[in-house]
Amino acid sequence: MVTSSSFRSGRVIAVFAAALLVLAACGGDGTRDDGPELEFLDGEVPSTVPDDFPIPAEAVAGKGLINRGIDPVYTELTMRIPAPAESVFAYFQDNLPLRDYDIESVESLQDRIVVAFSKGELEGELRLQEEISIQVTTVVLELNPAG
User: Fold this and answer.
1) How far is residue 51's CA from residue 74's CA, in Å, rounded to a whole number?
2) Taking the model in full, what pTM does it have?
3) Counts for the chain of helices (H) and strands (E), in that order
């Protein structure tokens, strides 16, 4: 015989199981729960930049941002590299494919070079802008930029 007590506990278990399924479905790749929803960084490479992403050894990390409040997680990093933009561009042009990143497009504008790339589900963009007077190139890396 089913009592109201056993019926209620069965319903609680069913609700709990449904909640676990919803939480598991929202987990994605696991990066959304690795830190605060919005994280500002200074002087460090964001943890959401893939370990295999080519970053020149002489690059100095500047400001960074991780937005875990959107899916996929958005990442931005500004770096300064003590080299002309053409050299920095050549570095990425050589090293992205070596690490299985596809270069989707390259756009040379009057004051910067924009490189769009992808690897699997990951999409990204590099914006290179040279400060000619001091031979330094500022690079902005965006991962999973919105449309």
Assistant:
1) 16
2) 0.75
3) 2, 7
